[in-house]
Amino acid sequence: MKRWIFFISARHFRTKRREKGHTASLLSVAGIAAGVMTLVTVLAVMNGFQVGTIEDILEINSYHLQVHTPDAVREAPLIADTNGVRSAVPFVDMFALAQGFFADPIAMAVRGLPEAVCALDGGFADQLEMVAGTFDVATPRSIVVGEELARRIGLRLGDGLSVVNFSAEGLNLARPDSMDLIVTGLFKTGFLEYDAGWGFVSLATTRELGGGEADTVGVKLLDRFSDRAAMRRIDSTIADVEVVSWRDYNRSIFGALRLEKTLMMLLIGLIFVVVAVNIHQSLRRSVVERTEEIGVLKTLGASPASLQFVFIVEGLMIGLVGAAVGTALGLALSFNINAVFAGAEVVVNAILGAAGWIAGLFTPGRQGVTAGFTIFSPAYFYLDSVPATVIAREVLGVALFALASAVVAAVAASRRISGIVPAKVLRYE
C-alpha cells in the first residue's frame, strides 16, 4: 500500500490546523476511551457478582450433577471413581421450621450431609467461610447455620435450636414433633439466600428428624461443561438412576443472569453509537476543510478510493488510540475498584466534615457531621467489597467493537470525497 496514505492520515490526526480539527480528534478519542473504560469496568463488576453467585449455587447447593437414587450412600463411592468426577456426596434436603429461645419461628432449608463432607468435597469447604465455631456435624444433634440466620433469631455458638421437619412423612400438623439441635458453627457465603435460610446437619440427624435416608448424590466434575459426557458415563456405571445436569435445574437463574448481562452491554454500548456519530461529523468537517488538498491530490493522480482510505485510516487511528486508552483505564479501574470507592468515601467524608465545621462556626453549639459516609453500607448492602472479574475475551470484544464503530463512521464520512471535482476546487479555491 502507498506510504503517502499513512503519512497524510497521521498528519491529519495530529494536525492543529484551525485548531477545531485537532480538538474534534481529541474529543473523538476521549469519547471512545470513556465508552471502553465504562463498559470494561461495568462488565468486570457484573462478572464478579455473577461468578460469585454461580460458584455459590454450584459449590454449595446444586452441584454439577445430581444423581437421584434410593441408595445414595452406597453408590456415592462408585460415582466418585467415575472418570472426570471430582467429588460425589450423598445428601438429603428438608424444609423445616426453626425457633430459638427468644425469637419467632423462621423457615429454613436443612441439608443432611456426611460427617466428613469437608474432606470429601473441597469446593464446598472452600466456599464456606466459618465466622464462628467449626463445620462440625459429627457431634450428635448438631447443626451449622448461616450467620445471617443466626443474627435474625439471636443464635450464638452452643445455643439450642428447635427444629421441626415439615418434609417428614406422617407429620402431625396439629402437634408437630420438634428436635433441639446444638449450634456448633456459623458460616458465611456472601449469598444471602444461604446465609439467612440454610443449615447443615449430619445424615444421622436427618434420620432422627424424619428426613429418611439420603436419596441424592451431589456430583462435582473436573470440568462442569463436560456434564453431558459425565452423565453418560454414570448411566453406564449405575443402572436405574436419574441424572440431572446443572444446566437443567439452574436454567432459569442462569438464563436471567445471561439476559441481564446482555441488556447491560446493549445499553452501555449505546455510548459507542453517540461516539460514532461524533466521529462521523468530525471527519465530514475535516473533508470540507481539506477540500482544496483533496482537489490537488486528485489532480496529481490520487484515486478517490485512495483519498477515502486516508480518512478511514484516520478513523482507525482514533479508534485504536481511544480503545487502547479506554482499555488501560478500564482494567486499572476494575482491578482497583474497591480502592477507588474507599478514596471516594474519604473525599466525601472530608467534605461533610468541613461542611459540619463551617456550619458549627455560624451555629453555636451545633455538632459537626460525625457519621461516616459509606458507599456500600452493611445496613443496606449485603457485601463487604465489590468483586471484579475480568474476562479477556470480553475486554477484547469491547475494544474491537469500539474500533469498528470508529472505522464505520470514517467510511461513511469519507464517501463525500467522491463528489469533489478537482476543476471546480482549483477554480474557486
Describe it for me?
- With 429 residues, this protein is α+β, with helices and mostly antiparallel strands.
- It has two domains: 224 residues, no CATH class; 171 residues, no CATH class.
- Helix content is 57%, strand content 16%.
- The chain has 16 helices and ten strands.
- Strands 2-3-8-5-7-6 form a six-stranded mixed β-barrel.
- Helix 1 crosses helix 13, helix 2 packs across helix 13 and helix 2 packs antiparallel against helix 15.
- The chain is elongated and about 100 Å long.
Percent range for β-strand residues: 15-25%
What order do the helices and strands follow?
A: HHEHEEHHEEHEEHEHEHEHHHHHHH
The radius of gyration over CA amounts to: 32 Å
Total beta-strand segments:
10
Helicity range: 55-70%
Described by the principal axes of the CA atoms, the overall outline is elongated
Domain count, please report it.
2
Please count the helical segments. 16
Termini separation? 30 Å
Mean model confidence by pLDDT? 82
Q: How would you characterize the largest beta sheet?
A: 6 strands, mixed, barrel
Low-confidence stretches: none
Structural class, judged by helices and strands? alpha+beta
Strand order of the largest sheet: 2-3-8-5-7-6
